[in-house]
Amino acid sequence: MNLKKITAVITACFAVAFFNFSCHSEPEDLSAESTILINADTGEILYRKNPYEERAMASTTKIMTTLITLEEGQLDRRFVVDSMAIRVEGTSMGLQEGDIVTRRALCYGMLLPSGNDAANAAAVSISGDISAFAEKMNKKALEIGMNNTSFANPSGLDADGHYSTAYDMALLTRYALKNEEFRNICGLSSASLEYGNPPYKRTLYNSNKLLNLYEGCIGVKTGFTDNARRCLVSAAERDGVTLIAVTLNAPDDWNDHEKLLDYGFSLLSPMEITPESFTLPVFGGKETKISVSPEKNEIIGISPGSEQNVKIEYHIPAFLYADIEKGDKIGTAKIYYNDEEISAIPMIASEDSFREIPEKTFSEWIMDIFNLG
Predict the structure, then answer these.
(1) Which of 330, 358, 338, 332 lies closest to 5, judged by CA?
(2) φ, ψ for residue 193 (rounded to 5)?
(3) For residues 50 and 135, what is the distance between their CA atoms, to the nearest angstrom?
């Protein structure tokens, strides 16, 4: 397909919706040794304190383990858990030898009750053993840009060579939240599942109290070990603005995150981006032209006055061939902030264009399209 690329810079003519959030001063007296707050849409850092300091990150590790498990697929295939993998200390989803599970159930077990048994069982299911899975975790970390992170196990238990930074964990979370399944699971206060031998229904509860404490909280993961102390990764969304906060070694993490998120929402405003529609020539159809429109609008959070940093690139064909049905994907509108692609909106056909019988010659179609007949 012959594609053309059109770039449009977002200007003041685009609708920018500013909401009256309460103004908050920069958070003070945070208990965390390391912390960071970022705009999930653009990656912009809004607050930091020792963000690149390498620290143990406890069960926030399971963000990576769950992400890899979801990306591996075969989520609903049933299998028997590895009996050695589930013999692990710490928090658990209650797996026992001989239990029949699915990878999907293990993802719930990791993100809600923070099951170390679930993390190990998922790792062995995917890679055959813990060390091989840790290699996969480290490879994925480098792909994401987590350059100061090293994973030694899938659960987050204290171990030599197992560490990250607040900044890297924010990068990981920003990436993971783009996975719809991950986003759905980590935001649940509880979930009903079936597993066991034979499988039977039971309910898992999320250890993340912020889901009920903070308006708009959508996740993400708690953590604690003797070495890491209290760790927390949170995300919250209001009026289309999404924030990610990370604290490592934070005795008062719930309050830390409320302060951080309040501060972030006071800095950003939602901006609604509406891509343009196009009319494209069509060869071989009853209609000689067809309208192509964005499938949806996009809302992102930005700092007021930074609209000029947003642009759209349209990747659409120069012309089309019938048959086309309404709703068919024709191209993509890619949204960039400071030259980083942050979203891609499908461009779809707004109407049908079916093949005409008998077909006209190519020359006849050219004449019709350009009104040369």
Answers:
(1) 332
(2) -135, 165
(3) 27
Tell me the CATH number for domain 34-269: 3.40.710.10
In this prediction, residue 16 carries a pLDDT of 41
Question: What residue type is assigned to position 126 of the chain?
Answer: I
List, in sequence order, the alpha helices (H) in 288-373.
362-369
Q: What residues are labeled active site?
A: 59, 62, 114
Q: Where in the chain is the domain with CATH 2.60.410.10?
A: 3-15+274-369
Q: Which pLDDT tens digit goes with each residue over 150-192?
A: 999 999 999 999 999 999 999 999 999 999 999 999 999 999 9
- Topology annotation, domain 3-15+274-369: Peptidoglycan synthesis regulatory factor (PBP3), Domain 2 (2.60.410)
Q: Which residues pair with 231 in a beta bridge?
A: 223, 248
Q: Who contacts 370 (Cβ-Cβ below 8 Å, separation ≥6)?
A: none
Could you read off the pLDDT of 248-296 as tens digits, one per residue? 999 999 999 999 999 999 999 999 999 999 999 988 877 788 899 999 9
Q: Which tokens belong to 82?
A: 């590895």
Give the whole-angstrom CA distance, residue 136 versus residue 31: 33
The Cβ-side half-sphere exposure at 240, using a 13 Å CA radius, reads 15
Residue 187, C-beta contacts closer than 8 angstroms, at least 6 positions apart: 211, 217, 218, 219
Q: What is the pTM of this model?
A: 0.86
Burial (CB count within 10 angstroms: exposed 0-12, middle 13-18, buried 19+), residue 72: middle
